[in-house]
Amino acid sequence: MQNFIPTRRAAMALILAGTALTGATGQAVAQDITLGALRLTSHSPTYIALERGYFEDEGLNVELAFFESSAAMAVGVAGGDLDYGVTSISGGLMNLAQKGAVKVIGGALAEDPDVQGHVILASNAAFEDGVTEPAQLAGRSFGVTTAGSSFHYMLSRIAEGEGFDIADVQMKPLQKVGAIIGALSSGQVDGWAIQPSIGKRLVEEGAAHKIGDLSDYAPDYQVTAVFTSTGTAEGEREQTEAFLRALSHGVADYNAAFVDGTADEAEVTELTEIVHQYVSTDVDDARFAKDMAEGSMRINEGLSLSTSSLQSQLDWMQDEGLVSGDITLEMLVDPSYVETN
């Protein structure tokens, strides 16, 4: 876990014995919460909600804790270092749910056949050697963070769709997205699947070739979810509902600006600038605006959750022996907070 980054808008909360007090004006002091985040465009609603004061409006004083992997964030929530997290479904998260430590309470990033989703890439060396479509990933190497990660699951969907055994692909666990980017760009791994905001940039910069779309293999994939500790889900309902309302407001702004195209130009510019404070800060403004305009995936309105996709992911991980066969969807999900399907 890296250092906490406090919101610009946050006021200091007064805490006594873990309970928020009221200030001299009689108004309730904001409740402190810590939220895990990744420096990816898929976390844009978090930054929008933060900078536009949506959390503050709900009486929440939010601090961000930045991570470089989904697994570490899940451990942070389970261990009490974080109140909430937004990241991909992983075997690690499922194992923590079996222990009664965490609950998924909402959905976030999702594949939508009508919107550009994850792109399947080949390194330049692999492409020149004949890897020009996903079926040709058999016998090659593929970048993942860890076994049981979203990247591992995406590879499984490609393998199943193309009729080859996933065991025929050499997975290279590189722990961090940045490390996979470096390995793909230098030809140390042959293939990868990643959000279009990153994938399209790699292609346009000549660092990789696009060879397919994940939506052809997993059109209803619930990529990321919102989760919290079981104690918070069960014992802090008012706070959790306030958190989800604020984040949902950020989702609505994000989708309007970058997915549905219903926001005006000034709104798009403002939101792009907000996100760029946190994501790809080394990329120039024009390039980042292009990434947001052309590479933003849909995030579920109202943070609705595809439990059918989660069940498919759980079934696969159990079939692969990555998680216990005793884990159930009920252990993983608290369906009482958002719409599910």
UniProtKB/TrEMBL annotation:
<feature type="domain" description="SsuA/THI5-like">
    <location>
        <begin position="41"/>
        <end position="253"/>
    </location>
</feature>
<keyword id="KW-0732">Signal</keyword>
<dbReference type="GO" id="GO:0042597">
    <property type="term" value="C:periplasmic space"/>
</dbReference>
<feature type="signal peptide">
    <location>
        <begin position="1"/>
        <end position="30"/>
    </location>
</feature>
<dbReference type="GO" id="GO:0042918">
    <property type="term" value="P:alkanesulfonate transmembrane transport"/>
</dbReference>
<dbReference type="Pfam" id="PF09084">
    <property type="entry name" value="NMT1"/>
</dbReference>
<comment type="similarity">
    <text>Belongs to the bacterial solute-binding protein SsuA/TauA family.</text>
</comment>
<dbReference type="InterPro" id="IPR015168">
    <property type="entry name" value="SsuA/THI5"/>
</dbReference>
<protein>
    <submittedName>
        <fullName>ABC transporter substrate-binding protein</fullName>
    </submittedName>
</protein>
